[in-house]
Amino acid sequence: MLVPHPVNANTSTTVPLTPAFTSIRRTRRRYGETVIGYEWRGRFDNAELNRVHAEAFGHRPTDDDWWGQVNRHSLGWSCARLRGRLVGFVNVAWDGGVHAILLDPIVVPSLQRHGIGGSLVSQAVEHARSAGCEWLHVDFDDHLRAFYLQRCGFRATGAGLIRLR
Hints:
- The structure is a single chain.
- This protein is 25% helix and 36% strand.
- The chain has helices at 46-57, 66-73, 116-130, 145-151; strands spanning 2-8, 11-16, 24-31, 34-40, 74-82, 85-94, 99-107, 135-137.
- The longest helix is centred in the last third of the chain and has 15 residues, at 116-130.
- Residues 1-27 have low confidence and may be disordered.
């Protein structure tokens, strides 16, 4: 599978999506004495992402195949790590063209409200733009409105939703 993939801030190219070329390291950010590392298309295992998802959304861990899903359907994803432990994640699905969709932005509850989620979204915006996307879509619950509209720069639009299950 070939996908547009940014190589550095100044260029982008089409490269094979292989394990040898799946990540771009990002500058680490310091929050007090805590240093969070961010990695675009970073490696993770399903168990650790299922744990973070369960913590963030308040449910029991599942055995979802996140690694297979993101590698089949995503422009990319970003991982946030604290001392090697996965503490945040965002997935950017896309249509292969100009539309990207922000999915599953999560941060473990104990580290929320420290800028980690905003940094994950900023990285998603940067890479979707570098890949040539014109639009990045997101949907969210009302209590997250200020985060997405004020902190992350999304604008409110009319949208529709059908619950399928």
